[in-house]
Amino acid sequence: MTKPSIETLQFHGIDALRLNGPRGASAVVSRLGAQLLSWITPDGRERLFLSDKAVFDGSVAIRGGVPVCFPQFSDRGELPRHGFVRTHEWTVAAQRCGDDYALLTLETADDEATRALWPHAFKLELTVMLEADRIDLELCVANPGEAGFAFTGALHTYLRTIQVEDVALEGLYGHDYRDAADGDRIVRDSGTQLTVDRETDRVYRDVRRPQLLQAGNLSLGIQSQGFPDVVVWNPWLDKCAALTDMPADGWRHMLCVEAAAAERPVVVAPGDEWYGRQTLVAV
Q1: Is 9 exposed, middle or buried (0-12, 13-18, 19+ CB in 10 A)?
Q2: pLDDT, tens digit (0-9, with 9 covering 90-100), for 48-76
């Protein structure tokens, strides 16, 4: 049995690292945006959606995988949509392997370009830990500056589906959500499971239960810590057609289930750190 390992590679022409985990599991993380771009479970199946029209030159964020949104979620503020670290080069801070895991930490910090947009000192670390049937992503937001700052953000996870119409998401019953596809109306979810049959763009608030994405024999358990909200997004047919970096049928093969701090900004005091995590488990 080969031991877990980490190797560097070129992925669509950009610097990336491959985590080789137990029982043939693997993950690819790009240094551009510290973005998880691939997660293959021991059954050989790719669990993340990556658009075959994604752009990898850093001019825009890579469409798919797990982009890191910071320090602004979506367009809720003055900054570029989803912040500015998705197109930043990150550096390798740590990597190690054990008998049953491979672990990689990438980091980035403020510079002249970020301070021109957002006048705060910050340091981010994204840690990816790959085990046989699960992957953990942990974002650490540190404030090395002399004043506090507030941010919103997310791990914008694109999950691969065979047909999004056939999947059901459990675990959000009874939660209020903001429905961006319906004029930001606040709605209480009253169904035992969420199915997708139209454009879906919801921020569920204060979610403490794990979710289960039921998709035949490709089911996934999804859990977050630190992030208070869960975002569920699918652009559906018309909105997908307007995205130049998505194939026309891309909407059918993805569902974003994101760990997010979207509704209320997180405040980080000088010298403090904040942690948020999302765990995906193949069931």
Answers
A1: exposed
A2: 999 999 999 999 999 999 999 999 999 98
* Model confidence pTM above 0.85: yes
Structure tokens at 251: 């909407």
Per-residue buried b or exposed e for 35-64, using 16+ beta carbons within 10 Å of the residue's own CB: bbbbbbbeeeeebbbbbeebebeeeebbbb
Q: How far apart are CA 190 and CA 136, in angstroms?
A: 30
Instruction: Single out the residue of 169, 170, 153, 173 nearest to residue 161, CA to CA.
Output: 169
The encoded tokens of residue 145 equal 């500056």
